[in-house]
Amino acid sequence: MKQLFTIENNPETAVQPVLSLRLGNHHLGYSITSPDGDKLYSLAYYRTEQTDTAALEELLAQTPALHNQFYSVQVAWDFTGNALLSSVEHQPEESGTMLRALFGTNGQEEVITENISNWQLFNVYAVPAGLLQKIKQQYPAAQSRHQISLSIKQVIAATEEGNMYVDFRPDDFTVLLVKSSRLLLAQTYTYSTPEDVVYYLLKICSRLGLSQQELQLQVSGLIDSNSALYKELYQYFLHIGFRESGWQGNDYPAHFFTTLNDLARCAS
φ and ψ at 240, to 5 degrees? Predict the structure, then answer.
């Protein structure tokens, strides 16, 4: 694993600490916070060749604080390959077959279904079985959900022009697109260059008939305001801003940690 950044704010003073874990194809991160998620005690984020049982065991071995007792443990699965289905489309007995057909899963994963009741949707996804078992062994009382399920639940309202939420990881990004009270898109894309990102976002706008001059674009994750990626986005989108976490006063931009902050607040 390669550590991208770490923060330590006197974790030994934590009262009723909440552990939040985010695990995706090539990234692994955690935070330790107060129960309401407002105060950050500790945080680290890693890039991985593959986030599997060995990667989690390496993290646990080198981070003694993760063996402490926690008031709550929150887990977000961020692996690609999920399907959002309506109640009519959802057929539980066919979930594994559907994921194999769509994403080429090999049958070594655990298939999970989450009910996003506010949007009348089911989120079906797969998690590596060994990794899931390790989490259950280490944190038996952990509460878990898919990152996209969590992101959808953060959406309260959207403009008539549309709101696009884009969260960046080292090699991919998730797009959540909402217009008025309708969820139009929730999808993950891989990218290598800033041009790849712009291509996908412009194609989405074109396909759904949205104007990038009127659309509200909110970005979070691993994107810096001085980066080539941000400057490329700024050429095409008039209304662009950062969706920031409440964790201020660190050496890193607050929007780097928005998704972990969202996850931590699930404990309150």
Answer: -130, 135
- How far apart, in Å, are the Cα atoms of 132 and each of 32, 144, 155, 194, 202? 20, 10, 27, 33, 36
Q: Any idea which residue has 């209304």 for tokens? A: 239
Please tell me the distance from the alpha carbon of residue 12 to that of residue 2, in angstroms, as a whole number: 25
- Give the DSSP per-residue string, 6-38: EEES-GGG-SS-EEEEEEETTEEEEEEE-TTS-
Q: Which residues contact 117 (CB under 8 A, 6 or more apart)?
A: none
Range of the domain at 224: 154-255
Q: How many residues are recorded in the chain?
A: 268
**Phi and psi for 5 in degrees, rounded to 5?**
-165, 160
46, 68, 60, 45: which is closest to 245 by C-alpha?
45
Cut 0.85: pTM above it: yes
Report the distance separating Cα 110 and Cα 92, nearest Å. Answer: 13
Pairing mode of beta strands 163-168, 216-221 = parallel
Q: Are 262 and 154 in contact (CB under 8 A)?
A: yes
Rounded Cα distance, 129 and 155, in Å: 30
**How many domains is the chain built from?**
1
Would you place residue 95 in the very low, low, confident or very high pLDDT band (cuts 50, 70, 90)? Answer: confident
| Euclidean distance between CA atoms 200 and 68, whole angstroms | 42
Look up tokens 């080292």; give the residue.
170
Residue 237 belongs to a domain with what CATH number? 3.30.420.260
* Chain mean pLDDT for the chain: 90
In a domain, 117, yes or no: no
User: Exposed, middle or buried by CB within 10 Å (0-12, 13-18, 19+), for 50?
Assistant: exposed
Say which amino acid occupies 223: I
Considering the domain boundaries, does residue 80 fall inside one?
no
What's the CA gap between 229 and 264, in Å, rounded? 28
CA angle 188–172–63, rounded 5-degree value:
115
